[in-house]
Predict the 3D structure of the following.
Amino acid sequence: MDQELRAQCARIVDKLEAARVADRSLSVFGAGAHKYEIGPTVSEERIRAFEASHGITLPEHYASFLNLVGNGSPKAEDRPAAGPFYGIYPLGFGVDDFISGGFGHLNARPFVRPDMNRSEWDEATTPVISEELSAVEYDNALRRIFGGLLPIGPQGCQSYHALVLQGHDAGKIVNIDTDLLCPIFCYENNFLDWYERWLDEILSGLLLKEGPIWFGYAMGGDDRYLLQVYRDSDDNSTKLAALDGFGKLISICADSAIEISNIAKSDNPELRYRAISILTEFDYCRARSELEDLLKGTVEEQLVACKAIHLFAEKYASDWVDVIGPIATVTSDIELFRFASYILDSTGMDCTTYLLPAALHQDECIRRQAIYTIGKNLDNPQAAEAILRALSDESPQVVHAALQAHERPLDDRFLKAYASIATRFEIDDHYVLTNLNHRLRAIGYDNKAAFVSDFYAGRVRQRGFWSRFFR
């Protein structure tokens, strides 16, 4: 083992202790499981024995970690050690997480690789999903897909980090989902660099910031490093990956913001859109003119702008009502309408006027989203009328949204609408009856049959009686 590996392992030991101190509250995702604890190291003899039993050679950086840093939890042999997500498996644990049925798959030639495209992955995994495979065929298909990968830790649900054992990419870490989502490779070349980056992002505060942080799914490094990668590469996918890396950052420097603003004027739409989103998050003032241009453009461009404003500049949502309101009024694109309505809703203003046309749109998804948002302003008589009209919509999804959009009947006409729904729906289609029951309980009925009977017999108390309870 060379001195560089020893030095890096020593550095990791120190950083692991520092991370334990920095995250005393265990707020980093998964830290509550491993608590930054790690068990005794593994002897070279034990490592060689594991390799011999599986016919493999462990990548040097991973073996060095086991030999010089530690292995598993000090409290239980089968518990992971400190590491990304829920930690790093003890040596030999979880070997069959991807493929059950004993030895033989670790020394297979890996199928997954960084440059594998989605169609290639789909072609390989489609037979696995087939219900016509025999048990032997199923195991063989899994061996082909996941062979040559050593599971080294859980991420939660069906997701894991794995170590590539063979071939050109040996030593790299890849994110695997056993529900057969396409694998995502990490950007580091070896286990130690990947593990040390995890510690660095804890110590820098990146993994401590609020919001979802999926370590290892984006390129590491600060804004200057990411822009250097961007400049040095002629490959569009690498440039995009560098820009995507900004999503994990807390802030960027002024020089980086200037460079990103230049990229935001690129003729390449993908690069331009990514850059505008970055500017919206980190330098809203610079982003405004670019967002204005997008909102004057195509549906695709408008959607990019609306997503950026909703995700990164929600506190400035009221700046955009006069632009995004008219877009919501006329668009027939459900995604664009959805994000436009999110922005209008987040202003806290009554934007019912802009949403009323969508409540009559021929697309039921747009009608449903419109009704959901309109329901936030029920003091507006137009909003109440829209909700009442939606209760008789032909789409169960829209009726469901209308029932959820109000907590009590707004006038006696709603009672008639409830009776109509109770008669019209024999099964709980899209949970319409479940939500109807909530509305009926507000006026003293435990089931729809009693309400319908009383309504048509004229025995349901009118609004003048029960409205006093909902002021």
